[in-house]
Design a protein that fits this description.
By secondary structure, the chain is mostly helical. The chain is built from nine helices and no strands.
Protein backbone atom coordinates (compact mmCIF):
# COMPACT_ATOMS: atom_id res chain seq x y z
CA UNK A 1 0.00 0.00 0.00
CA UNK A 2 2.96 2.31 0.61
CA UNK A 3 4.16 2.47 -2.99
CA UNK A 4 0.90 3.74 -4.58
CA UNK A 5 0.52 6.30 -1.80
CA UNK A 6 4.11 7.47 -2.28
CA UNK A 7 3.52 7.83 -6.02
CA UNK A 8 0.35 9.82 -5.45
CA UNK A 9 2.03 12.08 -2.93
CA UNK A 10 4.92 12.68 -5.36
CA UNK A 11 2.45 13.55 -8.12
CA UNK A 12 0.51 15.85 -5.82
CA UNK A 13 3.68 17.65 -4.73
CA UNK A 14 4.76 17.99 -8.35
CA UNK A 15 1.36 19.44 -9.30
CA UNK A 16 1.47 21.96 -6.45
CA UNK A 17 5.04 23.03 -7.29
CA UNK A 18 4.10 23.38 -10.95
CA UNK A 19 1.08 25.49 -10.03
CA UNK A 20 3.21 27.70 -7.77
CA UNK A 21 5.86 28.18 -10.45
CA UNK A 22 3.44 29.03 -13.25
CA UNK A 23 1.03 31.27 -11.32
CA UNK A 24 0.84 34.95 -12.33
CA UNK A 25 2.81 36.24 -9.35
CA UNK A 26 5.67 33.88 -10.18
CA UNK A 27 5.74 34.91 -13.83
CA UNK A 28 5.78 38.61 -12.89
CA UNK A 29 8.60 38.05 -10.41
CA UNK A 30 10.74 36.26 -12.98
CA UNK A 31 10.00 38.85 -15.66
CA UNK A 32 10.75 41.77 -13.34
CA UNK A 33 14.01 40.16 -12.22
CA UNK A 34 15.15 39.74 -15.84
CA UNK A 35 14.23 43.34 -16.72
CA UNK A 36 16.06 44.75 -13.69
CA UNK A 37 19.18 42.64 -14.31
CA UNK A 38 19.52 43.85 -17.91
CA UNK A 39 18.17 47.41 -17.72
CA UNK A 40 19.19 48.48 -14.23
CA UNK A 41 22.18 46.28 -13.28
CA UNK A 42 23.66 48.96 -10.95
CA UNK A 43 21.10 51.54 -9.78
CA UNK A 44 23.43 52.40 -6.87
CA UNK A 45 27.24 52.56 -6.79
CA UNK A 46 27.40 49.74 -4.28
CA UNK A 47 24.81 47.56 -6.07
CA UNK A 48 25.80 44.45 -8.03
CA UNK A 49 23.60 43.04 -10.81
CA UNK A 50 23.33 39.64 -9.11
CA UNK A 51 21.59 41.30 -6.14
CA UNK A 52 18.49 41.45 -8.35
CA UNK A 53 18.93 37.71 -8.94
CA UNK A 54 19.03 37.02 -5.21
CA UNK A 55 15.94 39.13 -4.59
CA UNK A 56 14.15 37.36 -7.41
CA UNK A 57 15.05 33.94 -5.98
CA UNK A 58 13.86 35.01 -2.52
CA UNK A 59 10.60 36.33 -3.99
CA UNK A 60 10.08 33.11 -5.96
CA UNK A 61 10.75 31.00 -2.87
CA UNK A 62 8.20 33.00 -0.88
CA UNK A 63 5.61 32.52 -3.63
CA UNK A 64 6.20 28.75 -3.63
CA UNK A 65 6.07 28.48 0.17
CA UNK A 66 2.87 30.51 0.44
CA UNK A 67 1.30 28.46 -2.37
CA UNK A 68 2.12 25.17 -0.66
CA UNK A 69 0.74 26.48 2.64
CA UNK A 70 -2.48 27.72 1.05
CA UNK A 71 -4.83 24.86 1.93
CA UNK A 72 -7.60 25.90 -0.46
CA UNK A 73 -5.27 26.23 -3.45
CA UNK A 74 -3.33 23.06 -2.63
CA UNK A 75 -6.45 20.94 -2.29
CA UNK A 76 -7.88 22.28 -5.55
CA UNK A 77 -4.62 21.57 -7.38
CA UNK A 78 -4.59 18.02 -6.00
CA UNK A 79 -8.24 17.52 -6.98
CA UNK A 80 -7.48 18.70 -10.52
CA UNK A 81 -4.43 16.44 -10.66
CA UNK A 82 -6.50 13.42 -9.59
CA UNK A 83 -9.14 14.16 -12.23
CA UNK A 84 -6.45 14.34 -14.91
CA UNK A 85 -4.63 11.23 -13.68
CA UNK A 86 -7.79 9.18 -13.20
CA UNK A 87 -9.74 10.54 -16.14
CA UNK A 88 -13.29 9.08 -16.19
CA UNK A 89 -13.34 9.46 -19.99
CA UNK A 90 -10.88 6.56 -20.20
CA UNK A 91 -13.63 4.23 -18.92
CA UNK A 92 -15.89 3.20 -21.80
CA UNK A 93 -18.74 1.66 -19.78
CA UNK A 94 -21.23 4.38 -18.89
CA UNK A 95 -22.18 2.96 -15.47
CA UNK A 96 -18.53 2.39 -14.47
CA UNK A 97 -17.62 5.87 -15.70
CA UNK A 98 -20.43 7.31 -13.59
CA UNK A 99 -19.03 5.53 -10.53
CA UNK A 100 -15.56 7.01 -11.10
CA UNK A 101 -17.16 10.45 -11.47
CA UNK A 102 -19.02 9.93 -8.22
CA UNK A 103 -15.83 8.94 -6.40
CA UNK A 104 -14.03 12.03 -7.71
CA UNK A 105 -16.94 14.19 -6.59
CA UNK A 106 -16.64 12.83 -3.05
CA UNK A 107 -12.89 13.54 -3.15
CA UNK A 108 -13.58 17.10 -4.26
CA UNK A 109 -16.04 17.58 -1.39
CA UNK A 110 -13.47 16.29 1.11
CA UNK A 111 -10.89 18.68 -0.38
CA UNK A 112 -13.33 21.53 0.16
CA UNK A 113 -13.70 20.51 3.79
CA UNK A 114 -9.92 20.58 4.23
CA UNK A 115 -9.70 24.01 2.60
CA UNK A 116 -12.37 25.45 4.91
CA UNK A 117 -10.97 23.91 8.10
CA UNK A 118 -9.01 26.26 10.39
CA UNK A 119 -5.29 25.64 10.69
CA UNK A 120 -4.46 23.24 13.49
CA UNK A 121 -5.25 19.71 14.60
CA UNK A 122 -8.55 19.54 12.72
CA UNK A 123 -6.99 20.43 9.38
CA UNK A 124 -4.13 17.98 9.98
CA UNK A 125 -6.65 15.22 10.65
CA UNK A 126 -8.66 16.06 7.54
CA UNK A 127 -5.54 16.22 5.37
CA UNK A 128 -4.48 12.78 6.56
CA UNK A 129 -7.89 11.37 5.75
CA UNK A 130 -7.92 13.16 2.36
CA UNK A 131 -4.55 11.58 1.49
CA UNK A 132 -6.01 8.12 2.16
CA UNK A 133 -9.06 8.96 0.04
CA UNK A 134 -6.80 9.97 -2.86
CA UNK A 135 -5.28 6.48 -2.80
CA UNK A 136 -8.81 5.13 -2.54
CA UNK A 137 -9.69 6.99 -5.77
CA UNK A 138 -6.68 5.40 -7.47
CA UNK A 139 -7.93 1.92 -6.58
CA UNK A 140 -11.51 2.68 -7.64
CA UNK A 141 -10.24 3.92 -11.01
CA UNK A 142 -8.06 0.82 -11.53
CA UNK A 143 -10.99 -1.38 -10.52
CA UNK A 144 -13.25 0.36 -13.02
CA UNK A 145 -10.63 -0.01 -15.78
CA UNK A 146 -10.28 -3.73 -15.12
CA UNK A 147 -14.05 -4.25 -15.08
CA UNK A 148 -14.32 -2.15 -18.22
CA UNK A 149 -11.77 -4.35 -19.99
CA UNK A 150 -13.63 -7.48 -18.89
CA UNK A 151 -16.98 -6.19 -20.12
CA UNK A 152 -15.47 -5.23 -23.48
CA UNK A 153 -13.55 -8.49 -24.00
CA UNK A 154 -15.56 -10.25 -26.69
CA UNK A 155 -13.34 -13.36 -26.62
CA UNK A 156 -13.90 -13.92 -22.90
CA UNK A 157 -17.63 -13.29 -23.30
CA UNK A 158 -17.74 -15.85 -26.13
CA UNK A 159 -15.81 -18.41 -24.06
CA UNK A 160 -18.16 -17.90 -21.12
CA UNK A 161 -21.21 -18.39 -23.34
CA UNK A 162 -19.94 -21.59 -24.97
CA UNK A 163 -17.89 -23.17 -22.17
CA UNK A 164 -20.45 -25.59 -20.74
CA UNK A 165 -22.06 -26.63 -24.04
CA UNK A 166 -18.64 -27.29 -25.61
CA UNK A 167 -17.63 -29.49 -22.68
CA UNK A 168 -20.93 -31.36 -22.76
CA UNK A 169 -20.54 -32.09 -26.49
CA UNK A 170 -17.06 -33.49 -25.93
CA UNK A 171 -18.33 -35.79 -23.17
CA UNK A 172 -21.14 -37.09 -25.40
CA UNK A 173 -18.67 -37.67 -28.20
CA UNK A 174 -16.39 -39.61 -25.82
CA UNK A 175 -19.26 -41.93 -24.93
CA UNK A 176 -19.85 -42.77 -28.61
CA UNK A 177 -16.21 -43.05 -29.69
CA UNK A 178 -14.70 -46.57 -29.92
CA UNK A 179 -11.24 -45.79 -31.29
CA UNK A 180 -8.77 -45.73 -28.37
CA UNK A 181 -6.44 -43.15 -29.94
CA UNK A 182 -9.33 -40.79 -30.63
CA UNK A 183 -10.72 -41.38 -27.14
CA UNK A 184 -7.35 -40.41 -25.65
CA UNK A 185 -7.34 -37.17 -27.65
CA UNK A 186 -10.91 -36.38 -26.56
CA UNK A 187 -10.07 -37.07 -22.90
CA UNK A 188 -7.07 -34.74 -23.12
CA UNK A 189 -9.24 -32.05 -24.69
CA UNK A 190 -11.86 -32.52 -21.97
CA UNK A 191 -9.23 -32.05 -19.26
CA UNK A 192 -8.02 -28.87 -20.95
CA UNK A 193 -11.58 -27.61 -21.27
CA UNK A 194 -12.27 -28.34 -17.59
CA UNK A 195 -9.23 -26.29 -16.58
CA UNK A 196 -10.34 -23.47 -18.86
CA UNK A 197 -13.86 -23.58 -17.45
CA UNK A 198 -12.53 -23.44 -13.89
CA UNK A 199 -10.49 -20.38 -14.76
CA UNK A 200 -13.43 -18.78 -16.54
CA UNK A 201 -15.69 -19.44 -13.55
CA UNK A 202 -13.08 -17.99 -11.20
CA UNK A 203 -12.69 -14.96 -13.45
CA UNK A 204 -16.44 -14.37 -13.63
CA UNK A 205 -16.82 -14.75 -9.85
CA UNK A 206 -13.95 -12.33 -9.25
CA UNK A 207 -15.51 -9.75 -11.57
CA UNK A 208 -18.88 -10.14 -9.85
CA UNK A 209 -17.11 -9.59 -6.52
CA UNK A 210 -15.43 -6.54 -8.00
CA UNK A 211 -18.76 -5.01 -9.08
CA UNK A 212 -20.19 -5.54 -5.61
CA UNK A 213 -17.01 -4.16 -4.04
CA UNK A 214 -17.25 -1.07 -6.25
CA UNK A 215 -20.75 -0.33 -4.95
CA UNK A 216 -19.70 -1.05 -1.37
CA UNK A 217 -16.65 1.19 -1.71
CA UNK A 218 -18.65 4.12 -3.04
CA UNK A 219 -21.14 3.68 -0.21
CA UNK A 220 -18.28 3.64 2.30
CA UNK A 221 -16.79 6.73 0.65
CA UNK A 222 -20.11 8.53 1.02
CA UNK A 223 -20.27 7.43 4.66
CA UNK A 224 -16.77 8.77 5.33
CA UNK A 225 -17.70 12.09 3.73
CA UNK A 226 -20.85 12.41 5.86
CA UNK A 227 -18.83 11.55 8.98
CA UNK A 228 -16.23 14.18 8.13
CA UNK A 229 -19.00 16.75 7.88
CA UNK A 230 -19.85 15.99 11.49
CA UNK A 231 -16.27 16.08 12.77
CA UNK A 232 -15.63 19.15 14.89
CA UNK A 233 -12.54 20.33 16.69
CA UNK A 234 -13.68 18.61 19.90
CA UNK A 235 -13.85 15.26 18.07
CA UNK A 236 -10.41 15.23 16.51
CA UNK A 237 -8.77 13.15 19.21
CA UNK A 238 -11.80 10.98 19.83
CA UNK A 239 -12.25 7.31 18.92
CA UNK A 240 -14.81 8.41 16.33
CA UNK A 241 -12.22 10.43 14.40
CA UNK A 242 -9.72 7.60 14.53
CA UNK A 243 -12.30 5.16 13.20
CA UNK A 244 -12.78 7.35 10.12
CA UNK A 245 -9.09 7.11 9.21
CA UNK A 246 -9.05 3.39 9.98
CA UNK A 247 -12.06 2.87 7.73
CA UNK A 248 -10.28 4.58 4.85
CA UNK A 249 -7.15 2.45 5.31
CA UNK A 250 -9.19 -0.75 5.56
CA UNK A 251 -10.98 0.02 2.31
CA UNK A 252 -7.69 0.80 0.56
CA UNK A 253 -6.23 -2.52 1.74
CA UNK A 254 -9.35 -4.40 0.67
CA UNK A 255 -9.28 -2.84 -2.78
CA UNK A 256 -5.57 -3.58 -3.17
CA UNK A 257 -6.20 -7.25 -2.36
CA UNK A 258 -9.11 -7.45 -4.78
CA UNK A 259 -7.14 -5.80 -7.60
CA UNK A 260 -4.28 -8.25 -7.04
CA UNK A 261 -6.74 -11.18 -7.24
CA UNK A 262 -8.30 -9.79 -10.41
CA UNK A 263 -4.91 -9.37 -12.09
CA UNK A 264 -3.87 -12.89 -11.08
CA UNK A 265 -7.04 -14.51 -12.43
CA UNK A 266 -7.01 -12.44 -15.63
CA UNK A 267 -3.35 -13.29 -16.27
CA UNK A 268 -4.01 -16.99 -15.66
CA UNK A 269 -6.91 -16.95 -18.12
CA UNK A 270 -4.80 -15.13 -20.74
Amino acid sequence: MGKPRDELQARALGAMLSHAFFRLESALTIALTIVLVFLYPAPFPWWHWWYWLLLGLVGEALIIVTSLNDAATSQQVVADMLRQTFNPAEVHSSHLRAQVERALEYQQRVSDLVARAPAGVLRDHLQETAAGISEWISNIFNLARRLDAFEGDELIRSDLASAQSSLQQLRLRLQRETDEAVRAEIEQTIRSKEVQNENLARLQNTMERAELQMEATLTALGTVYSQLLLVGARDVDSAHARRISESVHEQVTSLNDLLAAMNEVYTRQA
